[in-house]
Each structure stands twice: as structure tokens, then as C-alpha cells.
Amino acid sequence: MKIDNILIYILFVIFLYIEGKFIYRNKQNKNILPLISIILFYSLIESIRYGRGVDYWGYRITYKVGISTGQYFFDITNSLFRFLNLTFNDSLFAFALCYMLSIVLIVNKYKYWFPYLLPLFFIFTVIESECFIRQFFAMSFANFAFLNLIKTNKINKILFVLFAIIAFFIHSSTIFFILIILILNFIKYPINYKYSISLYILFALFIDIAQTNILPFLLSSIDIGDNKFSSYISLSERWFGKEAINDIYNQKWYMQSLNIIFDISLIFSGYKLIKENHFSHRTTLIYNLFVIGAILYRAFFNIELIRRIAFMEYLWVFVIASCFLYFFHKRKNNIIDVITIIIVLLYTIAIFSKFLTETHFNNFIWDAYGNT
């Protein structure tokens, strides 16, 4: 356990809360400096990490040597950064800046929720964002596509296609996110919690898809034109069947129970809030994304490749959780609301504590000791 790691991240979460509070209190003010400071500080903190995340060393070598990933826009971006004599950590800054900018543009309509939304975004996404470098850079452009999809101008439709293509040529897995938001965009109502919770419980407690080997069978006919993905398909039993189960993702029984109750609570509470408050289509779409993500994430929790894809939808849980926390203070609450708030707080503390105390998530560039 390193004190500098714990101190930096706790102070950053406090900073996000304070900035969120300031933005909420001055929500009619069009001053964008607080948002810029959030984007820059997030990018700075993510750029000074060292050796953190499963993809860190692979992409560090890829960047330094100039190895092609087969994903054209990502390779072009790396080549441009190397041409400009930028370091690998400089590239991490740029990737984080793109991602945080995309998030801020999407959630900027929820300034009332910012005191909760900003800290929860960081706590719920930081582990995956530091592990999956290229995927989250691609998600920046997938998010830009999402932003243009929910707008009605013709130029936005063109921009949607453009950003979707860029995202695909950074990380081909974003095609699934794009297809999901395209389908969900036609659904004008939140997915009924009775069906979604029933399906979630089915996968959480009764059906282990990896043990059935049905996924390799279904994937065997898919070809999206990407060599790396095609290699996964050709070895589908290894990547998506029984052999793909990764024990490192196993949760202790109490953490798994807390996670399941957390998801179910927010699926239920989020649905009720949307129905009661008649939120915009953007919020309904985000809620439905979270629901789809929660079901897929739980169904394929121990299969890394599908887990990565599911997390692109599931990460929007931070919006639903912050919505619930905001309205908890604004209305008369029942016993279910009180239990939900306790579950949300307990799960948030558990996730953040795990991030702060795991040794492979605590190094910064000053811990490199001369390594380059």
C-alpha cells in the first residue's frame, strides 16, 4: 500500500466533488473553465501512471518500437505522436483527454447531478480505463458517435458515421457498442425492470453461459473484417467457451452478492425515476445501455473479451447511480430507497478501496527508478 497513490486519488475524488458542487451551484453560468480543469486534471493523473493495467507494457513497447496493431487509426495516431517526439506518457495524456472530453460532452446536461456524477464516473471506470488503453481511446470516438446519434440534424448523422468508423479502426470491438446504441435509439421507453431483473437473476444465479459452449457455436459464422477479431473467432472455444474462463475475475461471495444487489437496485430505481420524471431520450438511452450492459457483464463476468465489450455499456451505471443520489435528497423516500442508498454507498466504497489497495494499480512515473 503506497501513501502517495492513496493520497493522490482521494484528493482527486474530493476535487471532482468540489468542482461538481461548484458547477451545480452555478449551472446557469456558461463558464467552461471548471469543466476544462476537470478534463485536464483527469488527463494528467492518468498520464503519470507507470506499469499499471494489463495492457500497459504491451502498448508501451508497441509505441516505442512502432509495431503495427492492425488498427489503422490507432497506428496513425501513434505514428503522429512519435513524429512529434511525444513520449508514451504524453500519448496516455492525449488518450485520457479525448475520453474525458467525450464523457463531459454527454453528461453536461446533468449538471444538477455533478457532485455525485463526477466522482462516481472516476471510481466506477478507473480500473478498466487504465487496463484497456486502446479500447478506451476508441470509446472516445464511440461516445462522440453516441452524442451525434441523439441529435437530429443531417450533419450529426454524418458525424455519427464518421466517428463510428474512427472508433472501429482504433478498436474493432466498438462495433458492438455502435450497433447496440443504434438499436436502443429506436426504443423510446426504459426497458421494463420486471423483464431485465428476471434475466439478470437468471444469468447471475442459474445459467453459466461459458459452461454451455453455446457462444463459440454462435460466433463461428461472424466476420467483421478485422484480423485480430477473426483470430479470436477461429479459436472461439479458447476465447469464449469453457477454456476462456479467467479465475482472476472471480469475486468473493460477499463482493459478488453486493455487486448483484447493487445492479438490481439501480435497474429498479433507475426505471422508477425515469417513469416518474419523464427524462429526455438521452437519459432513457443511457439507462437502457446500462441495463443491457449489466446483464451482459454479469452473464460473461469471467470471460475477458465479452466482459470488455459489456463494460462499454455497463459503465454508464455512474449516471444512473448519481441520478438516484440526487433525487434521494429531493423527495420523500421509502424503505427500498433507503436500502438502495446504503447498497450504492457500500459498493462505491468497496470498489474504490479495491483500486487504492491493489499493488499493481499504485505506481507512478516517479516509481520507475530510471526505467524508460
Care to describe what's here?
By secondary structure, this protein is mainly alpha-helical. The chain has 19 helices and no strands. Helix 7 runs antiparallel to helix 8. The model is unreliable at 233-246 (pLDDT under 50).
Descriptive keywords:
372 residues; mainly alpha
Question: Concise description?
Answer:
The chain has 372 residues and is mostly helical. 72% of the residues lie in helices and 0% in strands. The chain has 19 helices and no strands.
Furnish the topology, listing elements before pairings.
Layout lengths: L2 H23 L7 H15 L8 H10 L6 H12 L4 H20 L6 H18 L1 H17 L4 H15 L5 H11 L8 H14 L2 H4 L1 H6 L7 H8 L1 H5 L12 H25 L3 H19 L4 H11 L2 H12 L6 H23 L15
Mean of residue pLDDT? 87
Rg, alpha carbons: 20 Å
Question: Helix proportion of residues, in percent?
Answer: over 70%
Largest sheet: none
Q: What would the principal axes of the Cα set say about the shape?
A: globular
According to DSSP, the number of beta strands is 0
Q: State the end-to-end distance.
A: 23 Å
Low-confidence stretches: 233-246
Order of helices and strands: HHHHHHHHHHHHHHHHHHH
Task: Report the total helices.
Answer: 19
Strand content: under 5%
Structural class: mainly alpha
